[in-house]
Design a protein that fits this description.
Blueprint: H1 10-13, H2 19-23, E1 38-40, E2 48-50
Antiparallel strand pairs: 1-2
The structure holds zinc ion.
Length: 62
């Protein structure tokens, strides 16, 4: 009787640990300061960055 260990799916343990370091942006929402994964910018304008929670704030810059 074999007793092989069950291999969990890698997606269950994979953590985006380099996320913040790669992006290097923080949310511009007042008092937030989280890692911003969403950038909003018009041509010839400074981009504005927001986190997942406040990404709706970026719509005003588009
Ligand atoms: Zn935010």
């Amino acid at each position: 009787m074999s007793d092989e260990p069950i291999k969990l799916a890698e997606s269950m343990t994979a953590v985006p640990r380099d996320h913040a370091g790669v992006l290097g942006h923080t949310c511009e929402h007042h008092g937030c300061g989280k890692v911003a994964g969403w950038g909003f910018a018009r041509p010839r304008s400074e981009p504005h960055w927001f986190c997942f929670e406040h990404r709706a704030d970026g719509d005003r810059y588009l």
